[in-house]
Amino acid sequence: MRDIASIAQYAHHVLKEAEIVGLPRRYRGKVRDNYDLPDGRRILITTDRISAFDRPLAAIPFKGQVLTQTARYWFEQTADICPNHVLAYPDPNVVVGRRLDILPVEIVVRGYLAGTTSTSILTRYQRGEREMYGHRLPDGLRAHERLAEAIITPTTKAADGGHDEPLSEAAILEQGLLTAEQWRTVSETALALFARGQALAAERGLILADTKYEFGTDADGRIVLADEIHTPDSSRYWFAESYPERLGAGTAPESFDKDYVRNWVVARCDPYRDPIPDIPPEVVLGAASVYIRAYETITQETFVLPDPAEVPLERIRRNLATYLDDGTAERRN
Ligand SMILES: Nc1ncnc2c1ncn2[C@@H]1O[C@H](COP(=O)(O)OP(=O)(O)O)[C@@H](O)[C@H]1O
Ligand SMILES: [Mg+2]
């Protein structure tokens, strides 16, 4: 793990926006800037944006690279389970995928009673609910306890900035969001991916507590894994070593502190009402070092620091130009 002093020179080495002049059909998501090429490829550029409280908070050095490279690791580790959208990685922050029709359901898989948002199973359980997402949870579970088996708690995939709404298998089929065959495929696949994720995480001393998958269909109607997989943004990881003690004490399990920035903000203002103060460099760098640590722990690979003299967006533009030019050259030959 890098200490803050050793990455201090990267404090402003961030990718906030990835506007690439000349690429068509930009969709600016919360985290990624996406472009759809006419030939059916989708370019997904993962920026360093971090959002919370329904608004952008800051840009964290390396976050986009960590997400892209963590997803790459997991796409490779799970390619035998299901096909994924990946075509190429022209830059550390960029994946080129096959553009899919994304299914309107986000497949959230949970192995533990956890979560902090109003739709999470822990919040609902603590409010006294037992029936949720089409499952019935037993009485007497402790916060953060392992569930008897992993469950799928599907939500709608909200369009632009909306909130995801809870679903269930019955609701998905009744509303015709997925066909019975599609539901069977995505639910079986998601549970298999999650089991693989948990098994590999366990070898690294980690618990993969929950995660979210997005699937799409290709031109032949085949179901393909899209977006990202088992990244710190889409997943909750805990440290296995301290888990039993934390569970016993009733305190939250130890995790890569994804909420590093969020906690700093909450301690200083009401983020839903007040203007958010500027996040100081040591907090930004602290968060950056947590992302590096997450990448290295999850993948057991060393994080390759980018060249500090290079502006990330310029590097990405150059790498994409080379990637796209090569393709044109190949087609000409
Ligand atoms: N292969 C793909 N084809 C089409 N859309 C995709 C593919 N992979 C991911 N997406 C979509 O691209 C977007 C990625 O950008 P992101 O910042 O995550 O957006 P959002 O704020 O909508 O989550 C998401 O809307 C995701 O559903
Ligand atoms: Mg997203």
How is this structure best described in words?
The strands form five sheets. The chain has a five-stranded antiparallel β-sheet with strand order 1-2-3-7-6. Strands 9, 12, 13, 14 and 17 form a five-stranded antiparallel β-sheet that branches. Strands 8-15-16 form a three-stranded antiparallel β-sheet, covered by helices on one side. The chain is α+β, with helices and mostly antiparallel strands and 333 residues long. It has two domains: 5-101 and 259-332, Phosphorylase Kinase, domain 1; 103-249, ATP-grasp fold, B domain (D-amino Acid Aminotransferase, Chain A, domain 1), CATH 3.30.470. It contains eight helices and 17 strands. It is globular and about 60 Å long. The mean pLDDT is 94. The structure holds adenosine-5'-diphosphate (ADP) and magnesium ion. Residues 29-31 line the site of magnesium ion.
TL;DR?
The protein is an alpha+beta fold and 333 residues long. Helices cover 32% and strands 23% of the residues.
Record the SSE blueprint.
Elements: E1 26-28, E2 32-36, E3 41-46, E4 49-52, E5 55-59, H1 63-77, E6 86-91, E7 94-98, E8 101-102, E9 105-112, H2 121-126, E10 131-132, E11 135-136, E12 146-152, E13 155-156, H3 169-174, H4 180-203, E14 206-213, E15 215-217, E16 223-225, E17 235-239, H5 243-249, H6 260-266, H7 281-299, H8 312-332
Antiparallel strand pairs: 1-2, 2-3, 3-7, 4-5, 6-7, 8-15, 9-12, 9-13, 9-14, 10-11, 14-17, 15-16
Helix pairs in contact: 1-7
The structure holds adenosine-5'-diphosphate and magnesium ion (MG).
Pfam family, one: SAICAR_synt
GO molecular function, one term: phosphoribosylaminoimidazolesuccinocarboxamide synthase activity
Family: Belongs to the SAICAR synthetase family.
